[in-house]
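Exercise 7.
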Amino acid sequence: MHTSLTCISLSFSWPDGTPVLDGLDAAFGPGRTGLVGVNGSGKSTLLKLLAGELTPSGGTVRVTGELGYLPQNITLDTSLRVDEALGIAAVRAALHAIEAGDVDEAHFTAVGDDWDVEERALAVLGELGLGHIGLDRTLGEVSGGESVLLRLAALLLRRPDVLLLDEPTNNLDLHARRRLYEAVDTWSGPGALVVVSHDRELLDRVDRIADLRAGELTWYGGNLSAYEEALAVEQEAAARMVRVAESDLRKQKRELVEAQQKLARRKRYGQKMWDSKREPKIVMGARKRAAQESAGKHRILHEERLSAARERLDEAADAVREDDEIRVELPHTAVPPGRTVFTLRALEVAHGALREGALDLHGPERVALTGRNGAGKTTLLRTLAGELPPVRGEADVHVPVRFLPQRLDVLDEALTVAENVARFAPGATDNRIRARLARFLFRGARADRTAGTLSGGERFRAALAALMLAEPAPQLLLLDEPTNNLDMASVRQLVSALESYEGALVIASHDLPFLESVGITRWLQLDGGELRETSAEEVVSG
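Solution. The predicted structure, written as tokens, is:
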């Protein structure tokens, strides 16, 4: 059966009337599609509409075949057994009853054609790296990342014709991410896989990219890298068109002025002839009317050309995406190469993470802190930030430090962006704060928006600005999974901001492309409660 997923005139608005989609037509064909777009563009909303989780305001969604949907936020009952979470508990119970000699017809009805369901379930679990958990454990005994993979296993067991994944690698550690990548790599057949993600490694595994922008989908063949190359070519061409349109607009303005000056000279000459009465009035009157009619036509012609030039410029400018680079100078964050930033001595932090012996950080090093979920990375960062005391040993920080948590709770929701920055830099004038915020893309009235009204990417930029512009300037910046829930534009903004930062960095992250892009110079891993030195090669190889 041919698989298809089609939107016809699909529209959706939030209860307050805010439109998200208006008459979208799209068809998702076989293979793997990456759905991208800035935060707030409606990617997750579109996925929920495709999955039937939301009801459209207008239009229809047509699905041929069975559909599976993995939402971004997953809540599972921790008391359930693994087989219950996989949806095979009833069939499994019937199989066991038949094996025990119970030939009740109801058992055979329950099994149907699924005589190999246990073998298939264990095979899928094994492919996702979950073979060790079996079918009888409760979900309370598995980690958060394993829960996500378990939900995916349940979908794969159903063999859906259409599979929708919404930010599936969010909050997954490197080990779990690799298993999910393998599942995407092995997706085959006539089925359609649609994934919303900002994960570069995942999006480099798709067959095509669908870019959701201003409620419209634009399609690009190939993976994320091919999409970015095509987009760069498009943007270069769009920038050229803007320059051509600007030149044409200047030309039309100049020609309009010249035409007006020429007509004014003719008018003065005509008035002079009228005043001198060199010709009969009837002749001069006819010439005046003809001149006025000609002047009117010329004025209308030049004004139409000017209007058309403005429209061409507006159209060309619409095709150019807004410059989203953060360019800011932060000289006071600089740390001399020999300066000791922090020292750890026989350290043990909450949840058992420890470092026997000494570990020091000197100068503007950029450190990646890796390890599985639950290993204690966040606890170690909070200890360095002074939010948690060590269980034993020493964790001494010798420079001003700031910590950006995953929750971004450094912002006061009721305050504006400018007011939030002022909390961290009370000595700075309002003009200075706004000038610095403009470098973080909060220009003009955008700096007066309250934190509670910001999108995810804007909230992150506001929190980053508050910390990086703080007084005293932070010479050690601690970032906890900073790219989680960020779209690709926001990740680029973070990278450009960190290029300007001259202090020391410690970043807990599972996002290897991001870590590589910020120039990591040292790798640490929390493994089995022990903090140890590692390398990029070791982290990548797993």
